[in-house]
Design a protein that fits this description.
By secondary structure, the protein is an alpha/beta fold. Helices cover about 20% and strands about 30% of the residues. It has six helices and 14 strands. The structure holds manganese (II) ion (MN).
Length: about 260
């Protein structure tokens, strides 16, 4: 039996499970809120064209409007000024969109401290237990933040000092971008950077370092709790928006069960 035939049989038989890591996309999907001097991203909106009515008697369809960075989405290298000459989302090689992934669970730490930051030593300690980060694969950073995805207020967790959501330290961001073998970083929060990253040195270090290194981001993932720490195959499927900086994406994890 060929490898793909065996794979298809395992999918049909349930020994490989598909876990959907994508947040539902609707007008209620939380979006990032920047300080008022900056342009704001659009929420997702449906505009009904017809629904089995005079506008189209046998068919239902919609237009939609959305930000590229709305909901579960993919950050392409050209999203950040450090990657301005890098790939747009349509130019990301398709072969890089199917890759192994590991899950680092820091949900307990993030529950205790919403400003929790992942450090290089946390990743090294995880590697000591589970093995090295995957070559050409994803580091998926579980923080439990997906439980807040029903509420814009809970998801952004902002007060008068700004948003408070977990992220990555500047040193760890630089290390992931420049030294770690991963192709990208996936998170449960509204962006790959911590809520307080506007005041880090450099500001927004994940965006600056990852995009500047030609790597990728995936945000607003959910259901990471259903994944094992290792042995995941991730399918990240952004739309090929020509010259786009990112796209809402369907993100699926394939996991062996039993
Ligand atoms: Mn983004």
């Amino acid at each position: 039996m060929s490898t793909l035939s065996a794979f298809a049989a395992a999918l049909a038989g349930g020994s490989i499970e598909v876990v959907d890591l994508t947040a539902p996309l609707s007008a209620q999907t939380p979006v990032i809120a920047l300080p008022p001097q900056f342009a704001q991203t659009a929420r997702f909106e449906l505009e009904e064209l017809s629904r089995y009515d005079d506008r189209g008697p046998a068919w239902y369809w919609n237009n939609f409007r959305t930000g590229e960075h709305t909901g579960t989405h993919f950050d392409a290298p050209n999203h950040w000024v450090t990657g301005a000459d890098g790939d747009d989302v349509a130019s990301v090689p398709a072969a890089r969109l199917v890759a192994p992934a590991v899950v680092l669970d820091f949900s307990a730490e993030a529950a205790a401290d919403p400003d929790f930051l992942l450090e290089v030593e946390h990743v090294r300690a995880w590697e000591g237990e589970h093995g090295l980060l995957p070559e050409g694969g994803w580091l998926l950073y579980r923080t439990g933040w997906d439980a807040r995805g029903e509420s814009q207020q809970d998801f952004l967790n902002a007060d008068e000092t700004g948003p408070h959501t977990p992220g990555i330290s500047p040193e760890c961001a630089r290390w992931l971008a420049e030294e770690a073998p991963v192709v990208g970083l996936g998170v449960e929060t509204v962006g790959t950077d911590a809520g307080a990253a506007h005041s880090f040195d450099p500001p927004f270090p994940c965006h600056a370092a990852l995009m500047g290194s030609g790597k990728y981001g995936l945000t607003q993932l959910q259901n990471l709790a259903q994944l094992p720490p290792t042995g995941v195959l991730l399918v990240a499927a952004p739309l090929p928006i020509v010259s786009g900086s990112g796209s809402p994406a369907r993100v699926l994890a394939l996991v062996e069960r039993g």
